[in-house]
Amino acid sequence: MRGLQNSVALVTGSTRGIGAEVARRFAHEGASVVVTGRTEEAGHETVASIREDGDEAVFVRADMRDPDDIAALVTATAEEYGGLDVLVNNAGVETNTSADEATMDDWEFVLETDFRAYWLCAKHAVAEMDGGAIVNVSSNHAFLTMPEMFPYNAVKAGINGMTHGMAIDFGPDVRVNTVNPGWVAIERTTENMDEEYREHLESIHPVGRLGTPEDIAGVVAFLASDDAGYVTGAHLTADGGRSVVMQDDTLPSYRKE
Ligand SMILES: NC(=O)c1ccc[n+]([C@@H]2O[C@H](COP(=O)([O-])OP(=O)(O)OC[C@H]3O[C@@H](n4cnc5c(N)ncnc54)[C@H](OP(=O)(O)O)[C@@H]3O)[C@@H](O)[C@H]2O)c1
Question: Which one of 2.60.60.30, 3.30.470.20, 3.40.50.720, 2.40.110.10 gives the CATH number of domain 8-190+212-247?
Answer without folding.
Answer: 3.40.50.720
